[in-house]
UniProtKB/TrEMBL annotation:
Any one GO molecular-function label of the UniProt entry: DNA binding
Keywords: DNA-binding, Transcription, Transcription regulation
GO CC term, one of those recorded: cytosol
Domain HTH crp-type residues, every copy: 130-199
Keyword Transcription regulation: yes
Signal sequence region: none
Species of provenance: Aquimarina algiphila
Entries under InterPro entries matching the protein: cNMP-bd_dom (IPR000595), cNMP-bd_dom_sf (IPR018490), Env_Response_Regulators (IPR050397), HTH_CRP (IPR012318), RmlC-like_jellyroll (IPR014710), WH_DNA-bd_sf (IPR036390)
UniProt keyword Transcription regulation present: yes
Superkingdom per UniProt: Bacteria
Lineage: Bacteria, Pseudomonadati, Bacteroidota, Flavobacteriia, Flavobacteriales
Limits of the Cyclic nucleotide-binding domain: 15-116
Cross-referenced Pfam families: cNMP_binding, HTH_Crp_2
Protein name per its UniProtKB record: Crp/Fnr family transcriptional regulator
Length: 199
């Protein structure tokens, strides 16, 4: 999103997080801009029974948790390292100044936030109305496009998400995800090779 040199020049600090370590908690005040340098970060919530719902997974060069920086509300979810990760951290004030001084970066953020809003709207509709197989294909296509914008629809995408993560992203049970993936393979929508899923 923002190149490393510009982040450094703006005063960003590269922080290390161990697997399972939280970067921020739901309900806390947003004070920093975060961008993944290495590793994977997820934003999630838990219901009263302790079931996890993953809002999104963010990989190298992806930012997360920005909306509260632009308005006066607290984080609607937690952020947690899925694996050992390195994340750029830039104070809210310096981040907003950076955007003000760089209209092209500001536009890129507007575009990214619009895409995320679209994804959220689609997923709310999918979770409430669509069959499991459809939900899974929708989320896989989103990650295929979002994690590699240069990828074409004809190019095979290796799914790095676990069956559990797919369940947490779609509101399904793990068993349902496993059955649905097998059905989708039989229909030719997916390929399973060495237990890895390809779309």
């Amino acid at each position: 999103m923002i190149d490393n040199e510009k982040l450094l020049n703006s005063g960003a600090v590269l922080k290390k997080y161990k697997r399972g370590e939280q970067l921020f908690e739901e309900g806390t005040i947003a004070r920093y801009y975060y961008q993944v340098h290495a590793g994977e970060i997820k934003m999630n919530n838990y219901n009263e029974e302790g079931k996890e719902y993953i809002q999104g997974i963010f990989v190298k060069e992806k930012s997360f948790g920005e909306p509260p920086l632009f308005s006066d509300f607290k984080y609607p979810a937690n952020a947690e390292a899925i694996i050992d990760s390195e994340v750029w951290q830039l104070s809210k004030e310096k981040f907003l100044k950076l955007l003000e001084e760089n209209p092209k970066i500001h536009y890129k953020f507007t575009s990214t936030l619009a895409s995320r809003l679209y994804y959220k709207a689609i997923m709310v509709s999918e979770i409430s109305t669509q069959e499991p197989e459809h939900r899974i294909l929708r989320i896989l296509d989103y990650f295929k496009k979002n994690n590699d914008p240069q990828i074409t629809s004809s190019k095979t995408y290796k799914v790095e998400l676990t069956r559990q993560q797919l369940a947490d992203l779609t509101g399904l049970r793990v068993e349902t995800v496993i059955r649905s993936i097998k059905k989708l393979e039989q229909k030719g929508e997916l390929l399973i090779k060495n237990r890895k899923v390809y779309r």
